[in-house]
Amino acid sequence: MTTLPEKTERKLGLVIDLDTCVGCHACVVSCKGWNTENYGAPLADVDAYGQNPVGTFLNRVHSYEVTPEEGTPQLVHFPKSCLHCEDAPCVTVCPTGASYKRYEDGIVLVNESDCIGCGLCAWACPYGAREMDSVEKVMKKCTLCVDRIYNENLEPDDQIPACVRTCPAGARHFGDFNDPESQVSKLVTERGGIDLMPEQETKPVNKYLPPRPKDTLEEIDILAPLLKPVAEKPDTFIGWLNKQLDKI
Asked: What is the rounded distance in angstroms from the CA atom of residue 180 to the CA atom of residue 44?
C-alpha cells in the first residue's frame, strides 16, 4: 500500500466557478487532446462514431437543472475531474504503489508501468474520477497537466493545465492553495469556495465556487407597447384605417 505525505510543499489545484461555466466542453476536448498526445499512454478512443464507442476521459462536464426555493429553475454545468485530495483513498488502497501523491506539489499521479489494472483505486475514489483505459489496461486520471506546468519550453501563459488555458469563459483557475496571496486562495476566501462531498473526509484540494444568487425582476410583457391601439379616436388616417379594418 502507498502512504500519503503528511504535508506538501505546495498545494496545486483548481478553482472552478460554477457561476461562470457555460458547459461548452472546451475543457473536455482540450484535456483529451493534450493527454492523448503527451504524458503517459494515449487515451483510448475506439469506434468513436460507431455503435459501441469506447473512450477514456480525464475531465467531464455534467449539467443539472436546479430549482431553488425561490426563483426560477437554473441550469448548472458541473465540471468534474480528479480533485487531488489531501487524504486520497485511491492512493492508500493501491497494492503496487502505482498511485501516489507528490510531496513537492500535492499532485496525485499514477505510475502506469507499475499499474496492474486491478481497479481498486477506482472503487475507492468517491468521485468517480478514475477510468480504466480499455486499450492500455491501466488506470487513467487527471494529472493536472504536470507535463505542462513544469515545461520550460512553453510560454509562461501556457504553463497551466490545458483545461484552464482553453476555457473561454474563464471559469477555471489554477494555482497554489498554500499561498494565501495566490488567485485561487483569494477566490476561495472571497466567494466561499466549497468542497465536493465533504462528508467523505478526503479533503479535496480542488474547490468549487457556488453560483451567485440571480436577480429577480417583475415579469415584463415586452410586446405590451406594441399591442396598444394606434389611436383612441379615428382623428388621423391611421386611426380611421384601423377602425375600418376592425369592421372586416
From this structure: 39
